[in-house]
Amino acid sequence: MQSIHSLLPDHKILLELEPEELAGIILEYLNSGGTKKRRMFSLSNLTSGAALRDYPRESESEICYALAEAWIWLENQGLIAPDPSQNGGWYFITRRGHTLEDRTAVEAYRKANLLPKELLHPIMIDKVWPLFLRGEYDTAAFQSFKEVAVAVRYAVEDTEEDCDVELMEKAFHPEDGKMTDANQTKDEKQATLALFTGAMGLYKNPLCHRNINFTAEGAAEAIIFASHLFKIVDSSTSASTTP
Quick check: 82 pLDDT over 60? Predict the structure, then answer.
């Protein structure tokens, strides 16, 4: 079985990691013993003097606290759990934890949690979610709004190749837009128009011309927003074709 030190020998890097980042290394360490037999662990396996002997002695206390924070993150995520057959501080790797064998798998799991599939339109799951998991945040955000624009263009049978903002102005025009909901009030129609034109102007168009450098959290928020817009497009399309 490997040691934490063998996986992360530089104590300075260890102390710079966020709890969720360090947690991936801890789970890799716990899983390195194999999965054929259920094994028990405790936090003291990581924080005892023997476990830390290869790190500088003056940093042991800080390292212990960092490992404890990461341990709690693993428990909160359901990747480790208290062993019901034991008393006091013993844990086992859960079934979910065994599926995440190393830090790379834990990182992918973290990213997936930022962008839950159940919140996304099926097109976004197919076209955008893989980009997000690969860390291509600008590309994923751009693609999400591109898919909305493509869906609107197809729905209104636009052949004039209008820019995206102009396309939305036509499609959701309060008076004669092909995708305007006749059941909405005048103010609601205007707000829907502003929602779509604003989304294209604020998110998609800038991404065509420069790098925005989205964080994972920012990209996830943008993609969820785009997915919501896509669902509105679906609803508008269904309403317009209902006799």
Answer: yes
Give the C-alpha separation, 122 to 231, whole Å. Answer: 10
Cα–chain-centroid distance for residue 234?
A: 24
Find all residues with CB under 8 Å of 216, minimum gap 6, and list them. 111, 114, 132, 135, 137
Number of domains in the chain: 2
User: Nearest-CA neighbor of 1 among 21, 26, 35, 30?
Assistant: 30
Contact 167, 233 (CB under 8 A): no
**Confidence bin at 172 (pLDDT 50/70/90):** very high
197-220: pLDDT as tens digits? 999 988 887 766 667 788 889 999
pTM: 0.70
Q: How far apart are CA 169 and CA 194, in angstroms?
A: 8
Quickly count: other Cβ atoms within 10 Å of residue 111's Cβ. Answer: 18
The 3-state DSSP class for residue 44 equals helix
**Full domain range(s) for residue 236:** 117-241
Mark which of 83, 112, 141 sits at the end of a domain.
112
233 and 124 in a common domain: yes
Would you report the helix, strand and coil content of the chain in percent, each value rounded to 5?
A: 65, 5, 30
